[in-house]
Structure formats: C-alpha cells, structure tokens
Design goal:
28% strand, seven-stranded mixed β-sheet, alpha/beta, homodimer, globular, 10 helices
C-alpha cells in the first residue's frame, strides 16, 4: 500500500487555510516529501504522520514557494529525534541552495545526503521502497517532474524453483528478500519469482508548461498530481508568460498519459474557488479532481487480468 | 495613535493555529515588524494591514523561529508593489544572514538597508515615526530586546513664541514640522513648543533570561510584550537551560519596570493552554495577560496630570 497526502495546494504564496504546494508519500511507515514551501511543517503536523521517518525530500525547483520551509522542517525533524541520514534530491546546485538556507539551521542531529538529478542514473534512484524518477520540464528556471513508484515482485513460480534446484527452506525468504546466502551459495529472488507485476505509480508535476514528454513520463500512473494555476481558458496568455498551466492543459496531459485520476494543485492566490472551473478539466479528462490541503488517498496493488 | 498586533505567539516551531512569535506595529499607516518566523506572512494577511507599508523589520536574534519567514515575506512585499527601501535591523551579521536566506529571493523590487545594532548611536535609531531602541539580553546566542516609541511634541507656548519674535504665519506649521525656512531664516519647533510630552512606549522582549537591565529598559512602557515559554514555576530549570523565562520571571520584570500592562508570548509547543497558568503572573503583576495570535490593541497619548 502507498498513501498520498496533499500538504498544500497554493502557488506563489501561502494563504490562510491554503499551504504551499507539497506532496507527502508514505510506504510502510516511511515518508517522502516533494517540495517544502513556507508552512509545510505545519501542514505535516495537521496530517499527523510524524516527522522522524522522513527519509527523502525532493525539490522540483528552487523558487521560494517550493523550498522556503526547509530550514524549519529540518529543525523540527531533528527535534523529533531523527539521527538517520536524510536524502535531498533536486536540480543542479541543490547542495549550495540548501546550505545557504540552513545558515539558521546549522546544528542538525543527522546528515544530509545531496543528490543532483543530473548525477542520477537516467534520472532514477531507489531509496528504501521509493523508486524515484525525474523528468526535466519547462519553467522559468530549471525544474523537474517526479514519479514515485512502489514496485511489486512477481508471483512465486514453483516450477522455476524446482527446475533451478532451490532449497525449499529458503523459498519463503526469497519471496521477501532480494537475495540470501545459504550453504555458501548466493540465491536471488528472480530464481523463484515470475515477472515483476504492476506496482503503484504516482506522478507529480509542477511548475511547467505542458511539454510533450510529460505524457510519456506519467504513462498509466495511478495518480497524477498536476498544477493548474488558473481554471479559465482565457488565462492561457498569463500561464504562458509565467510558464505555468491552466486546467485544460493539465487535463490534456492526464488524458494522453492514460492516468487513472488527476488531482489539480498549485492554484494562483487569485483562484479563490478552484472547484468553479473543474468542469473545464473534466470535459477533457473526466477523472479530474480538485486537490485541497489535507486530501488523502491510499493506493493498493491492482490485480491485472490474466493475459 | 499607535496600534499593536501580535502576529504569532509560538516559540520553537509554528503550530496549527499558533504562528511564530512576531509583533506588528502601526503608526500613521506605516508598519514595523519585530521578528519574522516561518508563516509570519500568513499571519500578516490575517491581520489585514497590508504589506506595502512595511518600512522596518527588526530581528531579536537569528534562531530560525524568529527569521525563517523573511524570504517569503520580502517576496510578498515585492508582489504588493513596494519599491521604497526597507530597513532591516538586527545583531552583528544581519546582512550576511539575510543575504544567505535570500538565495531564493534574489530579485526584489526594493533595496534593503541593513543596520547592525552595534553601529547605532547608543542602540537607538529613528525611522519615520518609529523611535527604536535596542538592549542586549541574555540568550544562547546574541539577542536584543526592543522598545518602539512614538514621541509626542510639547504643547504650543504662546509666550515663548512671542518672546522669540516668531512670525505668527508659521506658528501652526512649527507645531507639525521640525523646522521651516521663512524669509531666509530657519525656525525650529523648539522655538514655539514646550517640553516634550509623554509619548507611547512599547517594549518587546524575547528570547532571554530575566537580566536586571531589562526593568530599566522597559521603564513605564505602555505595553510590555514578554516571553513566557513555560507557565509553571517548576519549569525554571529547563527555562534556565535554554535561556528562556517562565511566567513569574516575566511578571517580575513587568512589576519592576512599572509598565502599564504585560502580554505573554513565545509559548513552548508543550504549553497548550497558556491561560492555565496566568494566575502565577497575575499574582506578581496583576495587569498580566496572555498574548494570542491576532491580539490587537490601540494606544493613545495619555494626558499627564499637571505638575
């Protein structure tokens, strides 16, 4: 199972009752955050999943509304008793930006491991059960969209296990662990498992113009969280100017990407009632919903039909 | 008239419904803030006095809970259309700390004038109608208490004006302006005014141990805003350890300083109901009140009795 919570849905500046855009993901009690604007730590307190298990913080880009809450969050994670390393992932320069902000948060009881997306293997990295993928998008500064994927192993294949002469004693272990040493021999899980099954895929995309590569990147996602800074189609000029998307553009990406559902977020402060224009997105992609602060959903593995 | 609003009353970290400790002061529509933790800009939005007229931002010290909200606030002030300089006052190193934080707020449409307290004339500076005084206090890092004073000119003294042969035409002008040139001669307000009258004095004091110099510094203040991180007397050991004050210590300062009233603030997150222990402060200084987010009061000049 994988749980998602929207910590905030505001763009540009935090508002009373609307925190800045941020996503929280939980797998087996461990936590990953994407973006951390001013106030994100308060939103986290409202959700109540704790601070100590935040293992990964990803940044789409370095505009203040996506990162200004970091020093306070790191201090609060420290106060929660964390001593284990935290991984921070972001565009080029992430270490310099974070260290500059942390002039007011110098003494943390844990280490920060910085990962620049350019240095990752094809934009991908696995941390605990979080399989993270990044895609460069098109904003007024370097910016990335993210996928967070929970993989699912294949089914146990008795015939294969017997054929490869795998000792029965370690069959159940190999269904959980990746490998095991037994009687001075290394056994790996692929020796007893069938093909990897469909996992759970969450896509997160803000701030950007609707570049074509996004549809492929988010393909078949269980949930696509996407910016919709304005609802009305006649705001397209302004959206283009500031390198953002309107509802109809987000919905077109969702439709082309064949995602299961889309949640809109990163609303302009001028968009006081995001639901008002939701019909525009739903006309294009019916499973469009308005994100809101504190919106939570749990995702289970889906059994695929026999082929 | 001088208006005061408490923007937040939390210490250490922002909580749902309790922003970080910060004070907003308004004189003739112009604004001064002391401290700016994460979320202060949202609290300012709640108060509704605007962003554009923020002329001065003072920092007591550089712990994150007192300054982390600055980059976001500066961007929001810029979005409100300000182009006039802003003065930022703080301990030694204020320029370096602010510039480091502003790595995510590089393009502001106004200049920042930095003032280190050590460089001020006896810890005092006047900006517009804000007469600011700073006093070093005792915290785990260099930290200052502040007074904000609205001065009041003396009464018009007809006999003095006649004696000094001041032209009648400029009498009324000299009651408003500090000086005027008239018929190639400079006239100053002290030529027509009596002794300066009692103004309005607001004192703000957090984070610190109750050092003796504070009582003199806050002497006769109309309002003393003071930290009370814990209510109970048996928390004194913890307060001493982290260089903070309990309610009874704040109240003793208020009593010795002969202030008109005291508002407690900067509560520990563990102090969920600040009112519960208010009686401890009121036993020592009856005009003790619990500060709360959004608490507002207006202060008028008080007519002194004839001496």
């Amino acid at each position: 199972m994988l749980d998602i919570a929207l910590l905030g849905t505001s763009g540009m500046m935090p508002l009373p009752n609307r925190f800045l855009t941020s996503m929280l993901c939980r797998i087996k009690g461990r936590l990953l955050i994407i973006d951390c604007g001013e106030g994100t730590q308060v939103a986290l307190k409202n959700i109540g999943w704790g601070f100590k298990n935040i293992d990964v913080i990803c940044f789409t880009h370095f505009h203040a509304d996506h990162i200004a809450g970091l020093p306070g969050l790191l201090l609060t994670i420290g106060n929660a008793g964390r001593t284990e390393d935290i991984v921070i992932i972001g565009p080029e320069g992430v270490k310099e930006v974070v260290e500059s902000l942390c002039i007011i948060a110098k003494e943390l009881p844990f280490n920060i491991i910085f990962k620049e997306i350019d240095d990752l293997d094809n934009g991908k990295i696995k941390i605990k059960d979080f399989n993270i993928e990044a895609l460069e998008v098109e904003h007024s500064m370097k910016c990335y969209a993210y996928n967070v994927i929970l993989k699912r192993k294949g089914k146990f294949d008795v015939k294969k296990a017997i054929k490869l002469d795998i000792p029965k004693k370690i069959w159940s272990i190999l269904q959980k662990e990746n490998s095991i040493e037994y009687n001075n021999k290394i056994y790996t899980d692929d020796m007893v498992l069938g093909q990897e099954r469909r996992g759970i895929k969450i896509s997160y995309c803000t701030d950007t113009r609707p570049v074509e590569t996004i549809s492929d990147f988010i393909k078949n996602a269980d949930l696509f969280i996407c910016e919709g800074i304005y609802g009305e189609n006649d705001k397209i000029k302004k959206a283009k100017q500031y390198k953002h998307m309107i509802y109809s553009e987000a919905a077109t990406l969702a439709y082309n990407g064949k995602v299961s559902e889309m949640w809109l977020t990163h609303y302009s402060p001028s968009l006081t009632n995001p639901e008002e224009f939701l019909y525009i997105a739903q006309d294009i992609f019916p499973k469009s919903y308005c994100g809101y602060d504190g919106k939570i959903s749990s995702f289970q593995f889906i059994e695929e039909e026999n082929k």
